[in-house]
Amino acid sequence: MERQARRAQVLRHAKRIFARKGYHRTNVADIISRARIARGTFYLYFQNKKDLFEELLEQVLTELAARILRLRVGADSPDPVEQLRANLRRVVTYVLDERELTDILLNHSTGFDRDLDAKILNFYDRIAALIQRSLDLGIEMQLVRQSDTRAIAYCILGAIKEVVGLLSRSAAADTDKLVEEVLDFGLRGVARPELLEAVKQSGDCATSSAFLFAAK
Amino acid sequence: MERQARRAQVLRHAKRIFARKGYHRTNVADIISRARIARGTFYLYFQNKKDLFEELLEQVLTELAARILRLRVGADSPDPVEQLRANLRRVVTYVLDERELTDILLNHSTGFDRDLDAKILNFYDRIAALIQRSLDLGIEMQLVRQSDTRAIAYCILGAIKEVVGLLSRSAAADTDKLVEEVLDFGLRGVARPELLEAVKQSGDCATSSAFLFAAK
Amino acid sequence: MERQARRAQVLRHAKRIFARKGYHRTNVADIISRARIARGTFYLYFQNKKDLFEELLEQVLTELAARILRLRVGADSPDPVEQLRANLRRVVTYVLDERELTDILLNHSTGFDRDLDAKILNFYDRIAALIQRSLDLGIEMQLVRQSDTRAIAYCILGAIKEVVGLLSRSAAADTDKLVEEVLDFGLRGVARPELLEAVKQSGDCATSSAFLFAAK
Amino acid sequence: MERQARRAQVLRHAKRIFARKGYHRTNVADIISRARIARGTFYLYFQNKKDLFEELLEQVLTELAARILRLRVGADSPDPVEQLRANLRRVVTYVLDERELTDILLNHSTGFDRDLDAKILNFYDRIAALIQRSLDLGIEMQLVRQSDTRAIAYCILGAIKEVVGLLSRSAAADTDKLVEEVLDFGLRGVARPELLEAVKQSGDCATSSAFLFAAK
DNA sequence: GATGAATGAGTCTTCATTCAT
DNA sequence: GATGAATGAAGACTCATTCAT
Questions:
Q1: Contact C192, C144 (CB under 8 A)
Q2: Which of C17, C88, C135, C155 would you mutate first to test chain D, the one with the most D CBs within 10 A?
């Protein structure tokens, strides 16, 4: 356990520095001086710099994935929109809590290692696939209009990434409000017009009965 | 060889390599061996590696900016949606034509130099501001529903970035179709529901009379 | 090896090479191959080549300055001439002991760096000022004849530099004798004629009662 | 002659730059841009950078040597001291007229090339030998006291070099006065005391009948 | 386990010189 | 003769990683 604590300590410091300076501008010297360990000690806990970075990256990817639940449909499942909202909220919350970590994912992680680049791309592709599946499901359930769900899935992913990135740069005043806006934008973008009509009459789209999104 | 021709030649080769390997993995040796020039010759035309990279980056940013025209409103202006579509098409066309260059922007350009990072962020912020202004205008014109236009602007920006990035990874079979999908998604996301209703009846949303987006 | 020992080792080797080849002709490769250390090790102890050189230079200047004591006057102070002789001897001894180091100062240190050039000039100016002050004091004490003491101070400085440089090129057979000659030359050059007359009678100028020179 | 004019022009510009920046800090680019000639043209007139520098150096050495005349003794020769004074004046005048050139010799010319270093050392040695011969002659003529004339010769050389160097840094207000001081210092340093006695009585040493110095 | 001195491959950059036009 | 584009050897410096203590 001692070992794990040490590792965690180093990871914590490294995380902060990577977030601030990016992978390339961060050197092992930065990390060990912050973590107050000797050079050799670093290599006792991590194979190399990339390994450490990869671990942090893995951490974000895992945590994010864990926060994006597959949409459940069924009698006793919550309202789909509610599920989407919950997903989005969990993601946003995590980003705000672990801003440094997500910064690493969003801003500093590209173009220095084939494997890692592929890993990140792959992660996003998986998320996009989740979204697409939800959209297809929505179409089946007659909630979502006919469309190229793959393209739309990437649109939605991109929208979320961008907003979340913005959030990570400078937190919004009202996060809940922001979540609603994004959700609303996405839902309207994909919903069958008839539903929106109904919504218009009931006066509130976002909480309307119908919806879809992502999930593991 | 004349100065400009030589410069262009080096830029062309460098572009390809940067696109494939990213800034950090590319070294001057790669560039000069591809361009078949001597080491010193490189420094005859560019101050250093960063300088060359910056020039390429500037090129994409400038070209992209030139392709995104500010929305014109007025009696003899084309249909706003048509303008949006044209913007999007120009961007997509450019990305497909200069895939290597845009690759540099989208995938390999972050985290190695404070100035350049800032320059890119700034570019995107300017695009987002354009979009936001269009949205605000749309609200005024009673085409766009009330919303947090700043947040939505970043959603739209993100959606486009992501789709374009996807495109740059692997060109879509039917680009026009893709443009329509993205446009449709965005418009529906922001349109006042009444308009969509009308659209539904006329059977075609995307070409409907009303819309807005970005501009220089 | 301990830090200081290693540093000293590198300095020792570098000193020899700088003395032989001069600053510009010496490259880091020369130094590390002589010191039998790796490239990186060099930069562990010195910021760069100039830094190392500067340290050596500082060393000579400091050591020399420490060997040139300000002239003391007073009841229980030694004979002024004796003090001058002691100064000169200490300088000469140092030069002979650390021929390589002084070689650096005398022969190989000019024209490659503004700062260092200035530092050396400044050192000599300080020495000249010391000499001048001694001369002024001598005039006050009626030992030294009226003259442009600034000019004469530089004459004396130059004379000593040249002889010391000669010494560093090829040690004299009899150093003590050399010191006497220089001292004698200088003293006669500045002494009031009356004193020399007296000396002539007593048969020995150099050890005559009266004199002065330099000091810290 | 056209050719010679061109050469001279380049030499003139190079001289100025070498004087200001020293050999190493001066690059061919500096020279050609000042001289407004093309890179290749430079090598039409000079074999290489060192060659050009060497030519300038040769120029100073030659000019200086030409200004230091061997002491003539004989019935119709001028007073020896007058000859010394004339030598010194010519040197000082040259230094002041060609400050840039002498700067090169005094400050910027050492430690970058074995041959040139040797050439300079050799020049000074020759001057020292001249002085020594004059001193020996003076002893023979019973004007100069017994001493280690080699050592004294270097003292005198050094004194002159230093004062001249000082002069080249910042011209003295009254050059004639300065020459007298140096001359006076040197003469007193080497003269037989009896002569100074006589001088004391006649009230003016420097112009006294007896003296000696250098020559080709 | 911990340390930190040592390593050396990897890169960038400069600049005197050449040579085709 | 003049030009200036091209050359490439030479050299400085960085930094992830190793290893003896």
A1: yes
A2: C155
